[in-house]
């Protein structure tokens, strides 16, 4: 790293990187990510009046996120799926922006997972299977190994015609819940689809 | 020992008495003894008393010199080995921000928290990887050098962690206790955020890998 | 006991010394070469036999191989038979034996050696009697000889020299007689091998005297110094640095370190792709050693050119040769990476490494339609822009008639189409018939036992009608229970033939494919052991015609299907760790991937039911041991029944957890989150 890689704006108190670095983002990925992380931390710290801040979640943010999320749920109930998806996506975005990085991780994760589950259901209902797959893989990656996740993932992948992937996830789901009827049915569906895919029926 | 002496004398007697010796044996037993002794004395007279001492001293000193030199070069090599992690941008950024003029104090704090979070991430990663690296080293899948680098990393990690704590104490006395807790939460939250941000890119990769045709709404085109 | 060293004045010991050393080297080496010669011949014989059925594909492989690759192969890989016969080893053997014969000749002609041999005292020999003779015989023999050789009785016209010889002979006879009769002399003889007591021994240096004397002695000293001071350290250090710079998997340690670095710094948020693996490969130290002037960027480009089947010659001189050399090297690099990825327990990286393997062997970029693109003569554009979008596999392709296939793949020439179809029907597909955890000598997996995985597979062509496990009689799917197979359950693998050469016309080297078996735990989706590599499987079935477009079904049975004509392959993989301590089910993900062909993979889950023997089982076993001779298959059946009933037993347990203890589940989840965070 050369001596003057970063630029500092004293007014916004934000860091930025010179264009020769941001022009090739794939080679400076960690540097760019670190800059973003510091900026986010700076913003949170500057608005923080208590020098001895703790991981306690902020009431204010919790309320805002909750309101947005509940709006989404209401829209879902009245069958306005597109709007509901928008509201919940917004709630998730707000959560990602308003929560400071030092607020308790456990709470943040649970909050995000809860909202994502709703979002995934809406994505599946509106036919956005690839988005759903990505969000479901996030849930798996953050340790949510529930049968519902595997059911939805298998279903979405089958819809995308990724039969082998679907079977892999379905069988993994069955290893956590061997008697889950939906997974069993999906497993048979996978087997059938693979046979079709291979021209064996 | 005694039996040896007896046989020795026996041999001496019989050979000197006997007329018939093995005719292939060119040198006679007695002869060698008598010829040898004056020669040995001559050599001993010419060689100074200090010769063996000098000899062993030279040997010892050269060995010691070699050993210390070798140790030094090995140590130097070891310290020159690269870290097993990629460049520590979090730490470098902290030092850079700290060295700049009129940076807001909280920005420095933010950079330090980021550095602390990275230090924690690395230590967690090391804990996770330790048994695996040990295994592949034992299996011979990786060379001696890598193992050295891994051992170094263990020490470097501790140093980095202590450094962070010292810096935190210097920035705000008494902050250390909260600093560590906060850095931990930040580490996890940042990891989650990185994973969350990756969703967009992963989606692009999946479209390419699976050769999917999607419309603007993310729906599959039939 | 002599205090000085003699040089070998009369050349009596050094030939022996040299002879011993030579023979020590020559005999093992000769035997080894002979063994090699015979073994390779017999192997070739069996291989030819096996490959006859498969040679069609090999011939097509040769036809479809681009000229450049053929040139490359002849230049870098194939050794002529002459070079096999006339190499350094054989030269050494021939020269060595020549020297041995010369030495033997020399020894037998050397008087000094004979003299030495005579000097050895054997009283029986001297008296001309056998060693088992009685005292009486000894006495009579002595009397006869002493009369003949007594100095007083010798004839007067003997020359002085002859007289001395005769006298000496007489002394020997007397001594021999004494040695056999006189107590003290006899003792001396028994103790030292000579009636006079111990003989003086001489310690000599087995060097001929001309090497030590005069002008040649400095040369000898120089020789010693160069041998001990230069040659020996040089070879030792060379050997040492070589063992240090290559890992046990045969890749350079720098390459291995680079791969490990990549895995340590691998971001779990990133998707592993073939392009990423190729990027890693391009940093290999091996490539840099071949071509120090090129950068890893160049290598990456070359590898991409290879999988896109593009010529690289416009980028610089000889680029195509460079490309072929580095592509050929990828085999060992990929296996090295696979090993390291498995060591890091990273399923994704290991999986994609194997995908990359196929891409490089077949020279095809990663693509959902790669299974069809690996076929020859396919018009890529017409195929990809064709109206039929849902054909991804050869199996699907074979549901259409030949003419239609030609249209789909864009092949107009009938001859070419026929070749393409031959390749398509000869690409192996693998079907799992049976998968078990087997503990030798047991009927079930007990806690802490050491099971291995035993798979029964059917190597089939995509053209074949699908054959279900039930179509085969139980006896074909069970293993021989004789002693030899019980003792070494893996011996059945060796009995299968080697996998034949692959259809891989774009790979610079002729190669055999293999299946790599990755085993991961479903719980965390992490690999638990180093990948097993399967090199032995019969491809016999591929030549069968059971075309799914033609065969008719009779109920559940396929018409014209004779199970005994088909060969069932066995794959066995030892588990790296024993079964868990506690009873219960453990789920494993088994990934079986071919290194060369697309579409020849398996990915399935196996359940290991760990159970102690119940009282019922033991009783059953006792009963069985009474009438053991009846049936072997009986055991298998009862095992399966038990497994099923066990599943039902666990049924209620699981639903209990699912419904009642949600709070507990959350707690478990929370812990798991903390564990899995390292993934993020």
TrEMBL record, chain A:
Gene Ontology terms describing biological process: post-translational protein targeting to membrane, translocation
Highest classification ranks of the organism: Eukaryota, Fungi, Dikarya, Ascomycota, Saccharomycotina
Protein name (database record): Uncharacterized protein
Gene Ontology, cellular component aspect: Sec62/Sec63 complex; translocon complex
GO molecular function, one term: protein transmembrane transporter activity
Superkingdom, natural source: Eukaryota
InterPro entries: TPR-like_helical_dom_sf (IPR011990)
TrEMBL record, chain B:
InterPro entries: Sec66 (IPR018624)
A GO BP annotation: post-translational protein targeting to membrane, translocation
Transmembrane segments: 49-68
Domain of life per record: Eukaryota
Keyword Amino-acid biosynthesis: no
GO molecular function: protein transmembrane transporter activity
GO CC annotation: Sec62/Sec63 complex; translocon complex
Keywords: Membrane, Transmembrane, Transmembrane helix
Name this polypeptide is given: Translocation protein SEC66
The organism of origin for this protein: Naumovozyma dairenensis (strain ATCC 10597 / BCRC 20456 / CBS 421 / NBRC 0211 / NRRL Y-12639)
Primary gene name: NDAI0C05800
From TrEMBL, chain C:
Transmembrane helix keyword on record: yes
Gene Ontology terms describing biological process: cytosol to endoplasmic reticulum transport; post-translational protein targeting to membrane, translocation; SRP-dependent cotranslational protein targeting to membrane
Domain of life per record: Eukaryota
GO cellular component, one term: translocon complex
Chain segments annotated as transmembrane: 16-38, 82-104, 217-236
Disordered, as annotated region: 621-670
Boundaries of every J domain copy: 122-193
UniProt-listed InterPro entries: C2_domain_sf, DnaJ_domain, DnaJ_domain_CS, Ig_E-set, J_dom_sf
SUPFAM superfamilies: Chaperone J-domain (SSF46565), E set domains (SSF81296), Sec63 N-terminal domain-like (SSF158702)
Keywords, sorted A to Z: Membrane, Transmembrane, Transmembrane helix
Ranges annotated as biased composition (Acidic residues): 626-669
GO molecular function, a single term: RNA binding
Protein's recorded name: J domain-containing protein
Record organism: Naumovozyma dairenensis (strain ATCC 10597 / BCRC 20456 / CBS 421 / NBRC 0211 / NRRL Y-12639)
Gene (name only): NDAI0K01230
């Amino acid at each position: 790293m050369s001596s003057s890689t970063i630029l500092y704006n004293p007014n916004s108190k934000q860091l930025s990187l010179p264009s020769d670095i941001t022009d090739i983002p794939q080679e400076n990925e960690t540097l760019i990510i670190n800059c973003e992380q510091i900026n986010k931390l700076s913003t949170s710290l500057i608005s923080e009046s208590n020098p001895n801040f703790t991981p306690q979640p902020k009431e204010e943010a919790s309320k805002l996120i909750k309101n947005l999320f509940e709006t989404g749920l209401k829209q879902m109930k009245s069958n306005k799926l597109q709007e509901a998806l928008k509201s919940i996506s917004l709630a998730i975005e707000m959560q990602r922006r308003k929560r400071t990085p030092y607020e308790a991780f456990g709470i943040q994760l649970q909050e995000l997972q809860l909202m994502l589950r709703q979002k995934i259901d809406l994505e599946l209902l509106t036919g956005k299977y690839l988005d759903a797959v990505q969000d479901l893989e996030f849930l798996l990656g953050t340790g949510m190994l529930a049968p519902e996740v595997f059911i939805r993932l298998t279903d979405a992948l089958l819809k995308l015609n990724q039969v082998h992937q679907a079977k892999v996830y379905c069988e993994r789901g069955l290893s956590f819940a061997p008697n889950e009827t939906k997974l069993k049915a999906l497993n048979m569906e996978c087997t059938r689809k693979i046979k079709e895919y291979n021209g064996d029926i | 020992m005694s039996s040896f002496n007896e046989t020795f004398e026996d041999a001496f007697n019989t050979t000197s008495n006997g007329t018939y010796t093995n005719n292939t044996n060119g040198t006679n037993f007695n002869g060698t003894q008598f010829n040898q002794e004056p020669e040995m004395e001559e050599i001993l007279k010419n060689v100074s008393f200090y010769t063996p001492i000098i000899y062993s001293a030279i040997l010892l000193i050269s060995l010691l010199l070699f050993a210390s030199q070798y140790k030094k070069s090995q140590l130097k090599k070891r310290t020159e080995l690269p870290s097993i992690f990629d460049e520590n941008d979090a730490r470098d950024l902290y030092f850079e921000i700290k060295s700049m003029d009129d940076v807001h104090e909280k920005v420095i704090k933010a950079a330090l928290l980021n550095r602390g979070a990275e230090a924690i991430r690395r230590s967690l990663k090391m804990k996770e990887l330790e048994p695996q690296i040990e295994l592949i080293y034992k299996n011979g899948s990786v060379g001696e050098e890598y193992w050295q680098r891994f051992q170094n990393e263990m020490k470097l990690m501790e140093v980095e962690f202590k450094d962070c704590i010292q810096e935190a104490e210097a920035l705000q006395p008494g902050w250390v206790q909260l600093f560590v807790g906060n850095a931990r939460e930040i580490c996890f939250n940042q990891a989650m955020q990185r994973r969350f941000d990756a969703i967009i890119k992963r989606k692009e990769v999946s479209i390419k890998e699976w050769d999917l045709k999607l419309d603007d709404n993310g729906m599959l085109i039939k | 006991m002599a205090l000085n060293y003699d040089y070998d004045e009369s050349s009596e010991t050094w030939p022996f010394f040299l002879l011993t050393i030579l023979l020590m080297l020559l005999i093992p080496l000769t035997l080894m070469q002979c063994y090699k010669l015979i073994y390779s011949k017999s192997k070739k014989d069996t291989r030819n036999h096996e490959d006859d059925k498969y040679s069609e594909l090999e011939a097509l492989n040769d036809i479809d191989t681009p000229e450049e690759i053929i040139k490359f192969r002849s230049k870098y890989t194939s050794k002529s038979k002459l070079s096999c016969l006339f190499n350094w080893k054989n030269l050494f053997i021939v020269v060595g034996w020549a020297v041995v014969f010369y030495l033997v000749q020399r020894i037998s002609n050397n008087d000094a050696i004979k003299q030495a041999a005579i000097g050895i005292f054997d009283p029986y020999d001297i008296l001309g009697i056998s060693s088992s003779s009685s005292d009486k015989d000894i006495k009579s023999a002595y009397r006869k000889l002493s009369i003949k050789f007594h100095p007083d009785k010798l004839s007067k016209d003997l020359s002085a020299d002859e007289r001395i010889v005769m006298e000496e002979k007489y002394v020997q006879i007397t001594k021999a007689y004494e040695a056999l009769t006189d107590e003290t002399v006899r003792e001396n003889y028994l103790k030292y091998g000579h009636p006079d007591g111990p003989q003086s021994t001489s310690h000599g240096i087995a060097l001929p005297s001309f090497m030590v004397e005069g002008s040649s002695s400095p040369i000898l000293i120089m020789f010693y110094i160069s041998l001990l001071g230069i040659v020996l350290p040089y070879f030792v250090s060379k050997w040492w640095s070589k063992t240090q710079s290559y890992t046990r998997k045969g890749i350079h340690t720098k390459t291995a370190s680079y791969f490990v670095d990549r895995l340590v710094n691998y971001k779990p948020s990133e998707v592993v792709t073939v392009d990423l693996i190729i990027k890693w490969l391009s940093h290999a130290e091996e490539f840099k050693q071949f071509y120090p002037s090129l950068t890893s960027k160049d290598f990456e480009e070359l590898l991409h050119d290879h999988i896109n089947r593009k010529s690289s010659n416009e980028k610089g001189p000889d680029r195509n040769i460079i490309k072929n050399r580095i592509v050929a090297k990828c085999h060992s690099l990929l296996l090295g990476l696979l090993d390291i990825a498995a060591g890091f327990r990273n399923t994704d990286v290991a999986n994609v490494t194997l995908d990359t393997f196929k891409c490089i062997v077949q020279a095809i970029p990663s693509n959902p339609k790669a299974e069809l693109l690996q076929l020859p003569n396919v018009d890529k554009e017409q195929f990809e822009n064709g109206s039929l979008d849902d054909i991804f596999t050869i199996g699907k392709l074979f549901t259409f008639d030949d003419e239609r296939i030609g249209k789909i793949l864009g092949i107009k020439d009938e001859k070419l189409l026929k070749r393409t179809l031959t390749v398509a029907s000869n690409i192996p597909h693998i079907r799992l018939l049976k998968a078990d955890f087997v503990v030798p000598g047991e009927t079930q997996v007990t806690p802490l036992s050491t099971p291995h995985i035993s798979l029964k597979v059917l190597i089939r062509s995509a053209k074949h009608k699908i054959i279900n496990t039930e179509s085969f009689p139980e006896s074909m799917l069970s293993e021989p229970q004789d002693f030899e197979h019980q003792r070494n359950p893996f011996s059945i693998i060796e009995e299968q033939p080697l996998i034949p050469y692959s259809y891989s016309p774009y790979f610079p080297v002729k190669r055999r494919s293999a299946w790599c078996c990755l085993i991961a735990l479903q719980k965390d989706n992490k690999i638990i052991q180093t990948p097993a590599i399967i090199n032995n499987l019969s491809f016999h079935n591929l030549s069968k015609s059971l075309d799914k477009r033609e065969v008719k079904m009779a109920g559940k049975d396929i018409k014209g299907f004779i199970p005994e004509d088909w060969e069932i392959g066995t794959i066995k993989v030892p588990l790296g760790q024993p079964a868990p301590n506690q009873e219960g089910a453990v789920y494993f993900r088994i990934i079986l991937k071919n290194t060369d062909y697309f579409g020849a993979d398996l990915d399935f889950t196996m359940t290991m039911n760990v159970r102690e023997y119940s009282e019922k089982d033991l009783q059953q076993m006792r009963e069985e041991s009474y009438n053991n001779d009846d049936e072997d298959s009986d055991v298998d059946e009862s095992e399966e029944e038990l497994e099923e009933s066990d599943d039902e037993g666990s049924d209620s347990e699981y639903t209990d957890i699912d419904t009642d203890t949600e709070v507990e589940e959350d707690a478990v989840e929370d812990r798991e989150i903390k564990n899995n965070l390292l993934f993020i």
